[in-house]
Amino acid sequence: MWQVQLHKIGYDEKEYNAVKEVLDSGWLTLGEKTLTFESAFCDLLGYDTKCLAVSNGTAALHMALLAGCIGKDDEVITPSLTFIADQNVTMLVGAKNVLADITSMDDWSPDPDDIEARITPRTKALVIVHYAGFACDMERITALCKKYNLFLVEDCAHTPGADYKGRPLGTFGDISAFSFFANKNIATGEGGMVVTRYDELYEKLRLMRSHGMSVPSFDRYKGRAASYDVESPGLNYRINEMCSALGIVQLQKLDDANEKRKKLVKHYYNRLGDVPSVSIPYRHFSRGKPNYHIMPVLLSESVERAKAIEFMKNAGVQTSIHYPAIQNFSAYKDKVNPTPKAEYVSAHELTLPLYPTMTTGEVDIVCDALIGALQS
Ligand SMILES: Cc1ncc(COP(=O)(O)O)c(C=O)c1O
Predict the structure, then answer these.
(1) Is 184 tagged catalytic?
(2) Whose CA is nearest to atom 10 of ligand 1?
C-alpha cells in the first residue's frame, strides 16, 4: 500500500536465529536471554546503572512512579509534547499532572524555566522526555531536582544511543524508562527497560516486576530454589525471552543503525532546509549526540496539515503526528493546564518516514511528496 512507510523493521537472519534459539530452548520467560540483555544494556549506559527488562515502556514508567512512592495528593510535572503514557501512569497512581511547556519552536524539550514556575509544595516528581532522541537540558533539570527535592523520571523511549554532552541519556534520572516498541531504535515488538543507579530502588523494582516474589520462576526451573516468599505487593511486568533475544541483537546493531538514521536526516535537512513553510526543530542542537529517533518537521500556519497528509498518502507516503495535544484528549480535557507552545506544535507538526534501512532515494520520494503537497 505504501511506497514509503513511516517505519520498517530491519530484521535479518540474526533476529530469526535468536528467536529460534529461544523457542528451541524450552524456556520462554525471564531467563538467560533476559539476563544477558540487561547486562548488555548496563554496558551501553555505564555510570553504574542497574537495568531490569520489563514488558514495555509504560510498565517501566508505572514502576518508576510506584517505586518513587508518588501517589494521592502529589503533583507530577510531566512534558506537554510526549506520548500519553507519561500522563496516564501519573493519573493511574492517583497524582495530578501538571504540564510543562516546550522551550521554543526550535527546541521542543521541556522548558526548565516553565518547569520551575510550576513547582509547588505538592510537587513530588518530574518526568521529562528527550523528544526524538535530543537531550533535555540536563544541567538545569538536575539542578532543579536537587533544589526542590524532586524525584526525576527520564522517559527514555526515544533515546537508546543518544547522550547529553557525552553522558548517555537514562543515567540522570532516579529511574529511567526505555521502550522497545516496534518503531523504536531498539525494536523488540513489545518490551522496555527500567533503569536506576540506586540499590534500594533496584531492589524495589526487581520485586515489583514479578509479583513481589523473592525467587523468580527461572531459579526454581533451574533447581536453585523450591519455594518463594512474597516480600511486597507486585505486578507481572516481566519481559519474555523472545523479546530479550531480539533486544540483544538489536543492541549489537544500534550504533550502525543510528549512524544510518543520521545520514538520512542530513539528507532530509539538505532537501527541506530551504523549503518555505517547513521548519525543522533542533537544527542547531548542541547538548550532545542525538539518535534521530524520528524525523519531525513543523509546517507553517498557512499549511492545512490534514490536506498535506492526504496528499502525501495519495503519493504513497505514510506520515504521523508526534504528538496530538494532551489538552484535546477526552480523558484530559479540563484536567490539565494549557501549554501554548506545545499546543501550537501539536497542531502543525508532521512526522516523516525514517528507519535505518531507508534509502536516500526514499527520502527524496518523501520530500517530493511534501513539496508537492505544499504547492497543491
Ligand atoms: C515518549 C514515549 N513514552 C512512552 C512510551 C510507551 O512505551 P510502550 O509503548 O513500550 O509502552 C512511548 C512509546 O510509544 C513513547 O514514545
Answers:
(1) yes
(2) 57
Contact by Cβ (8 Å): 121, 114: no
- Minimum-distance ligand 1 atom for the alpha carbon of 191: 10
Regarding whether 247 and 267 lie in a shared domain, the answer is: no
Distance 368 CA to ligand 1 centre (A): 30
Q: Are residues 80 and 46 in the same domain?
A: yes
Mutate to test the pocket of ligand 1, among 6, 7, 62, 83 (most ligand atoms within 8 A of CB): 83
pLDDT in tens, 237-250: 999 999 999 999 99
pLDDT digits (tens, 9 = 90+) for 183-236: 999 999 999 999 999 999 999 999 999 999 999 889 988 999 989 999 999 999
Residues 59, 294, 135, 240, CA torsion sign: positive
DSSP 111: P
Say which of 50, 124, 184, 260 is annotated catalytic.
184
In a domain, 94, yes or no: yes
Residue among 181, 185, 326 to mutate when testing ligand 1 (max atoms within 8 A of CB): 181
- Asked whether the beta carbons of 89 and 62 are under 8 A apart, the reply is yes
| In-domain check, residue 243 | yes
Residue 367 in domain: yes
- In ligand 1, which atom is closest to the CA atom of 180? 10
How many domains in the chain? 2
Q: Which three cell numbers stand for residue 211?
A: 509479583
Kindly state the percentage of the chain with pLDDT values over 70: 100
Report CA dihedral (113, 89, 74, 124) to the nearest 10 degrees.
-50
Q: Three cell numbers at 101?
A: 511547556
Domain that holds residue 305: 254-375
Q: Which atom of ligand 1 has the smallest separation from the CA of 179?
A: 10
Ligand 1 pocket by C-beta < 6 Å: which residues? Answer: 56-58, 82-83, 85, 129, 155, 157-158, 179, 181, 192
d(C-alpha 54, C-alpha 168), whole Å: 20
73: in domain: yes
